[in-house]
Specification:
Part of the outer membrane protein assembly complex, which is involved in assembly and insertion of beta-barrel proteins into the outer membrane. This is Outer membrane protein assembly factor BamD. It is a lipid-anchor. It is a single chain. It is built from 16 helices and 2 strands. The protein has 334 residues and is mainly alpha-helical. A two-stranded antiparallel ribbon has the order 1-2. Strand 1 and strand 2 form a beta hairpin. The protein is elongated. The protein starts with a helix and ends in a 6-residue tail after the last helix. About 3% of the residues have low confidence.
């Protein structure tokens, strides 16, 4: 029964998809086709409006509604939840009509399409943390809104674009902090410190600057770089005294000290230690490199070692101090 139900649902879906293909009358005039597209937009029938707007552009590429239909096609694709098509249509309009009086609207819709690209159906109904998702679309949206505000600062869409840029900038900074904390959990302290410094240097006036300083402090402490850790901590205390990582004026690391013991040592609660704990700031990989260097140094012949090279050169120098008479007699009268 379940298989039959699935087949019935599939047949109904295919029937609905086939029936949704609208056949346009080829005898429609430019004005009639444009009016029907406007009616579809007013009724939120965006798929039908897209079909009519594309037909209008292809049938009457130099008509009086050609430019307007291209502009409204961006909006129809955006409202139809097709961000890639909306961005493509916006880029085409900007390329073909850079001096159009409403080209700022194309820039604005292009930024909106990227802004909503990651906000799918789940994000609308579930409390998803957008700062932990891939920031590619958010970065594109920020750059597109930045183009709008820089090229058309007096545009009617500039104020809204600036507000969205503030939100996107905070989101991008929070994403960098999440990545930095991931590096801390993986003991990649250099990468974590670099991420924290990147936030401090490039995302000023965002709430994540204090988090960036905290990440830098923790990473430098793990690396035993005391001077850098102290500088980061003083900056954190001075500018963000109420930061969660500061408890009674003392810095509390967010991530616990990594347990580098083997599984056998952990299972026996330390009764059987297969390897000695690593010194601060060192890893197994760095110890392997040092060990390989020492083994290679031990395999060098004794006569080629630097200290023996000096003695050998001194001996050769003494031999070179013979007189010319000694050379002529091949050393017989030395």
């Amino acid at each position: 029964m379940q298989v039959k139900h699935l087949l019935l649902i599939a047949i109904l879906a295919l029937t609905a998809a086939c029936s949704s293909k609208e056949v346009l009358d080829e005898n429609l005039s430019e004005a009639e086709l444009y009016q029907q597209a406007q009616t579809d937009l007013d009724n939120s029938s965006y798929t039908s409006a897209i079909t009519k707007l594309k037909a209008l552009e292809s049938r009457y590429p130099f008509g009086r509604y050609a430019e307007q239909s291209q502009l409204e096609l961006i909006y129809a694709n955006y409202k139809n939840a097709e961000p890639e098509a909306a961005r493509s249509a916006a880029e085409r309009f900007i390329r073909l009509h850079p001096q159009h009086p409403n080209v700022d609207y194309a820039y604005y819709l292009k930024g909106l399409a990227s802004f909503d690209q990651d906000r799918g159906l789940l994000a609308r109904f579930l409390p998803l943390d957008m700062t932990k998702r891939d920031p590619g679309a958010a970065r594109d949206s920020y750059n597109e809104f930045a183009q709008l505000t820089s090229r058309y600062p007096n545009s009617r869409y500039a104020p809204d674009a600036k507000q969205r840029m503030i939100y996107l900038r905070n989101l991008l900074a929070s994403y960098e902090i999440h990545v930095a904390h991931y590096y801390l959990t993986r003991q990649a302290y250099v990468a974590a410190a670099n991420r924290g410094r990147y936030v401090v240097e490039n995302f000023q006036e965002t709430p994540s600057v204090g988090d960036g300083l905290a990440v830098m402090t923790e990473a430098y402490q793990r690396l035993t770089l005391d001077d850098l850790a102290a500088t980061s901590l003083e900056t954190l205390k001075l500018n963000y005294p109420d930061h969660p990582s500061l408890v009674d004026g003392q810095f509390v690391p967010r991530e616990k000290e990594a347990d580098n013991r083997s599984w056998l040592a952990k299972a026996t609660l330390g009764l059987i230690e297969s390897e000695t704990p690593l010194p601060p700031g060192q890893t197994r990989a760095s110890q392997d490199v040092i060990r390989q260097y020492e083994e290679a140094a031990d395999q060098i012949p004794s006569e080629l070692k630097p200290e023996n090279q000096d003695q050998r050169s001194e001996a050769q120098g003494n031999n070179n101090d013979r007189s010319w008479f000694s050379y002529m007699t091949f050393g017989l009268f030395d």
